[in-house]
Amino acid sequence: MAERRVSERRRTDPRSALPRLSLAGAICGFVLATALAVLIALTALFSARWDRVLDSALDSAVRLRSEAAAETLARHLHADWLDLEQLARDIPAMPEEAAQGLMEGMQGNGQRLTWIGYADTDGTVLSAADQMLEGESVAERPWFRNGMRGGFAGDVHESLLLTRRTDAGTPDEPLRLLDLSRPVRDAQNDVIGVVAMHIDFGWAERALSETARTLGIDAYLISPNGKVIVSSDGGRPSAAELEILRSAPSGALTAGRETWPDGQDYFATMVPSVGYGDLPSFGWRMVGRLPADSFRAGLSDLRGTLTLGATGLVAILALFTTIFVLIFVRPIGALGSLSDRIADGEFVYPPEFGGTREAARISGALARLQDRRVRDRRE
């Protein structure tokens, strides 16, 4: 009978139906769930933008480096163009021997400038460095015909004639030259001839390779028809193999990730024009590329740093949550336990809690209820 009364009293005691979750536990759970939700959302957002961020970084790096490589090459050629401009100004007033000496001084050792000369309006070479081709006709050469009309820059071409006249090149591998020419005018501004220089394209290959190596990219000089005429790594991919080369004739600025003939993925960009100042256009494009995973290690380090930072923030949040619970929530739990003891008839008084207004009001209310019970009992 006694056990039945105890059981019935437990069933009727409201405290037997209290939730097991405490206020402190609810707050800690809320903070933890919120922190995890934020971390998961940030992780999902970062993962979704990962490739986009990587491509953006690659695009900026490849584009700036490719533009720098193109400008460096064009600057060297522009310096030759300025020298040719000065020669065209000086020749009308110079004796033939003086003009020849000036050209030989400009040519130097001939390793870079293969030929410099001056032809009259009939196409006969009147003066040239080392007297090469003097007295011969160049009237049918593109550099002469175009030079009569204005400044001209000729794309790379083979020259069997100069290969035979110089020690450079062989019949199987003739000289590959670039042409620069411009008209010579007299005091009345009438065209009286053409000055021209032929630049050994081997120099351009070496210059491009050195510049690309310094900038940390692979660089490809592209002809107007999309053919690779020189590359820093020796490769010669074709337009049939790469979309970026097929877009070369349009001259549009293009960039993107693509699998190259070596089977590797690269991010490449095309500079639509290789030029500087008033240098006539050769019609070239420049393509630069970087391996597609070039920045992945750096971004992985960044992701690791962000993960470490997020872990630190969660730890700090947990610490402050614990301090908050101890200062502001635990007193309310203590008041709850004390209210049970008062309800069971114990004559105990709650301590004064001044942490929050609510804790102070509950503490004061319990103290007044206990005072009233004491007075009622005395009466």
How is this fold's topology laid out?
Layout (H helix, E strand, L loop, with lengths): L1 H11 L10 H68 L5 H12 L5 E8 L4 E4 L13 H8 L2 E8 H6 L9 E11 L5 E10 H15 L2 E5 L5 E4 L11 H4 L8 E5 L5 E7 L13 E7 L4 H48 L13 H22 L1
Antiparallel strand pairs: 1-2, 1-5, 3-4, 4-5, 6-7, 6-10, 8-9, 9-10
GO cellular component, one term: plasma membrane
Main location: membrane
Keywords: Cell membrane, Membrane, Transmembrane, Transmembrane helix
Which keywords apply here?
single chain, 51% helix, five-stranded antiparallel beta sheet, Beta-Lactamase, 379 residues, alpha+beta
Model description:
- By secondary structure, this protein is of the alpha+beta class.
- Among the domains are: 59-219 and 275-288, Beta-Lactamase (2-Layer Sandwich), CATH 3.30.450; 298-378, no CATH class.
- It has nine helices and ten strands.
- The chain has a five-stranded antiparallel beta sheet, with helices on both faces. The protein has a five-stranded antiparallel beta sheet with strand order 7-6-10-9-8.
- Strand 4 and strand 5 form a beta hairpin.
- The longest helix is centred in the N-terminal third of the chain and has 68 residues, at 23-90.
- The chain is rod-shaped.
- Residues 106-288 form the Cache domain.
- This is Cache domain-containing protein.
